[in-house]
């Protein structure tokens, strides 16, 4: 079951974010093609133009590249570039709020499950 779209951001941005998570997970691998616009539109039940805009967003961030007549392909180094961007975003935006909440709740490292998955 897919996570529903929200009103927090445009759908194309939400799709770009979902595809970026897959890229972080290595799907598809660097050098491999992404699913076609039609396949993604069908999978996510959205307009192909919305999918195209999401793919353009990924291309603007240097994660994928269009190959004329072939589709979009994951660029070499995309996963590492994305990982660096996401780490920086986490440390700048998410971590300070999370750290403050942990402090308010009196939680320390010993209270957290750091299990490997």
From TrEMBL:
Gene3D superfamilies in the cross-refs? 6.10.250.1220, Winged helix-like DNA-binding domain superfamily/Winged helix DNA-binding domain (1.10.10.10)
Keyword hit for 4Fe-4S: no
User: What's this protein's name?
Assistant: GntR family transcriptional regulator
Keyword terms, alphabetized: DNA-binding, Transcription, Transcription regulation
Residues annotated as domain HTH gntR-type: 9-77
**CDD domains attached to this UniProt entry:** WHTH_GntR
Q: Record the organism.
A: Roseateles paludis
InterPro entries in the cross-refs? Tscrpt_reg_HTH_GntR (IPR000524), WH-like_DNA-bd_sf (IPR036388), WH_DNA-bd_sf (IPR036390)
């Amino acid at each position: 079951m897919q996570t529903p779209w929200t009103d927090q951001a445009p759908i194309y941005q939400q799709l770009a974010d979902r595809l970026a998570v897959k890229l972080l997970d290595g799907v598809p691998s660097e050098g491999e093609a992404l699913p076609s616009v039609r396949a993604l539109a069908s999978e996510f039940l959205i307009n192909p133009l919305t999918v195209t805009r999401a793919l353009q967003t990924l291309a603007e961030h240097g994660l994928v590249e269009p190959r004329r007549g072939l589709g979009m392909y994951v660029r070499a180094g995309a996963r590492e570039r994305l990982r660096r961007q996401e780490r920086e975003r986490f440390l700048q935006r998410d971590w300070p709020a999370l750290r403050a909440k942990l402090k308010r709740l009196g939680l320390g490292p010993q209270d957290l499950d750091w299990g490997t998955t």
